Batch of 3 targets.
Target 1
Amino acid sequence: MTPVTADVIVTQVESLLSRHRSAPVTVAGWQRLEPYAIGRARLEGGERLIVKWMRPHPGAARHATSQRLRNEVAALRFLSDDLTSGLAPRVIAADLDAELVVLEDLAPRTALDGLLRAEGATAHADRLAAFARVRGELNAATAGRSGLYGVRRRALGPAGDAERFAGFREEGRRQAALLGAPIEGGAERELAAALEELEHPGPFLALSNGDPEANNVLVHATGDPDARLIDFEFAGRTHALHDAVCLHVPGPGWVSVDAAFAGGYRRALVAGVPEAEDDRRYGFGLAAACFSYVLVRLERVARVDARPPGDGSRVQLVATLEAAARTADEHRSLPRLAGWARRVAGLLRRRWPDADLDLDDRAAFPPYTPRRR
């Protein structure tokens, strides 16, 4: 494989855009956006574009890398060309064989997670509200129409296995059993019902970018946040409420979140999924998605256990379990799974005394406290 250097990428971009526009195109400026396989190109004339190229994830096969690019191109074209949604950047040009895509540049918007880390959640309440709202808008716009995405995606080649988390969930169950908290009895029956709901979402079937976290939404740092979604490499049709989990349960980068913004997600979702107004149905789907996520995160127990005391991954895992249980309680759903999650959290608190902290202490853990490694 040709080494991926700046000169190689720039040459590929110039060739791709020249073919696409049937006229010579010259890249006059280039900036690599570390640590990602992304760069910002400035063309002669001043036009600015974003360039993404594929590089394998650790342990990923080459075909899986290629599929991620196809997911992104299909999803973004679906959103811009089929739905004219304005929720995400437009694809300007793509070379699937070269594993390269050129996108609309959404600057001066910036990633929300960087703002939260630098200035805290209180300073960016409007941007967090926009984050919640745009996730609901994506699900609402695509609910009942995500088959169009499937048509676009199949036109670009086989999509592979859409359920990439099943193995993680099984490993999460195994790790819980090893801790002394197997999922059994009423909790096991609730889990079966939850997974059935997620597998057959009915009117909640919608498109997700597959990574609904604050690093994948761009907002204006001041004024109207005007949020846009990015990173559709893992895009696919799924239960919409998977996209709401990040508003209730801390994602990989956080120890805490603020569920106060989740109402904005739900209101936006109702515009395309009226069934989301039903408290029982919404609460059940949300709790199901939260516990599915918990099992995926529990897969990491053995690795986190091997880390030194004080590693932020430990308290983050405890926070994840307790936040999922709290969400289920608030929505009066899946009580036995909520009890199981609290039991696992208690076992981890005893196993890791360094993680036995008061997570309700908002002075120590304000909303969007970063997980420190």
Target 2
Amino acid sequence: MIMFYREWGSRDRPLMIFLHGGGAAGWMWDHQVQYFHDYHCIVPDLPKHGKSREEKEFSIISSAEKVIELINEKGKGKKIIIIGFSLGAQIALQILSEEPEFIHYAMINSALADPIPLGIQMLEPWVTLLFPLTRSRAFSRLQSKVLYIHDDDFEKYFHDTSQMEKETLLRILQENMSFVIPDTFKHATANILITVGEKENHWMKQSAKKISQSNPNCQGLMIGGVGHGFPLAKPALFHKMARDWIEGRGLL
């Protein structure tokens, strides 16, 4: 099955690829593609998410390969910009590592890159215990608030999370929590911006530091007053920062 994607903007402009977080789908970038209408924007639903739910499997490596195929099809001769959040940011790191000279600008938001061994060991019993709550509107409403999902997007979020199978959720979390920065990431030639929220946990902050130190083209920023969800929590700031980064102006 071909990975589902949506396409907006000016086809003769630089290509921007937006990669969503785990459990969401391409809809999480709706505000961004409206703002970047003067770019050629493509937003896929990653494998086992959204309208790509029927894909056979999920892995960070295979997802990166599918996105690379999409960029090869749509981005010939263009400047390529990739923006990822959480799971999507891990996939963006994998792409930068597999094709070090492929991407011109990358914005990596809240990427876990410091594996949590105890968390991985506890995943299966934890998912078994909590999985029924993914069918609960009340629980999903609480989760959506933590992730800064706007009320207008709640039904999309609830639909996607409630449709996910237990084995898929477990697989995605295993991939997420065991991800390490590929050694070839150090060769990536893109201009790379790393962000993490001030209110994110220790592992996320350590990951941002580790990523920033793994490639000389990285610049790291901590975003004040934000937890896990910078693009959704402060879209106006996110838009300005991304545009300033891509277009060569100074950051805040």
Target 3
Amino acid sequence: MPHTVDAVVVTEKNAPATVESIVVPDPGPGEALVDVHTCGVCQTDQHFQQGEVGDEFPYLLGHEATGRIAAVGADVTSVAVGDKVILNWRAVCGQCRACRKGQLQYCFDTANATQKMTLTDGTELEPALGIGAFAEKTLVAAGQCTRIDDLDDSHDAAVGLLGCGVMAGIGAALNTADIRRGESVAVIGCGGVGTAAITGAKLAGATTIIAVDLDARKLETAAAMGATHTVEASTTDVIEAIRAHTGGDGADVVIDAVGIPATYTQAFYARDLAGRVVLVGVPDASLTLQLPLQDIFARGGSLKSSWYGDCLPSRDFPMLVDLYQQGRLDLDAFVTERVGLDQVQQAFETMNRGDVLRSVVEIS
């Protein structure tokens, strides 16, 4: 029997995000119906609203979510009714060329629900990142549900952020950059993803962690989350400042959490010889980059992009939840405010002002 629930939808490019009634079908083969508890407000959702991801309107927004399994398709064995889960957008197929090579974190054919959720008039919805979790219920592929040890519901807002931004940042540090104990790390851009990268660098044992941003408020938060040095980019030469904090050599790892040519160029030249650059900030499709090929050759090292923190949810989510439970990973610090479904548009505006690391929608 289909379920009619409230959800946040954007009907056309740059239209406001509004609460609408939608219809969610019961799960079919390989699918799971989830009662959503919390969902973080991520900039990617706003990119969907602005038509920067695609033009398959109307979109059902939301993807950084926790919830409980309400029903599963007949063939689903990975999760069961009542399980608490974090939703993810990397449900690995196990069959593509990346999976066959054992690189499941690069799966090229990730699964989504086959059935479509709709508006009450039958108009099909495109769920953001295949999830669509600004909703009382959502339908996903069972592989998009990562079961976690049962936590008190008061922790859902924090652990749900592993579904996208926080995982992207921590994974950029731990997985993509593979930061090692004693290394120096600089992170350019200290929003939610960049601050998570700082947290990841601290977990990895980096001894020098340099936070770079234009906003003094973000630098203050970065310092509280583990940065040993801060650089205010509006008043300081970023490359020279990073070199000054690393004995004149440059950092072993520089993570660009902004994703524009200026910050990537800073990252490239602020690293040590044979150092690593990791791009985790999502660039606009119109942007291009120019670097002297001789400099790319002469400086050595590696230039990497980090997709979703190169994470494997079934491996990384439970590990990070364990660290959270042990008090070694402060996910609560990322939850700046809690809002309702009808406040998503305002949360976008708060995010754009730089007033939050994350707003989290509490649904049930």
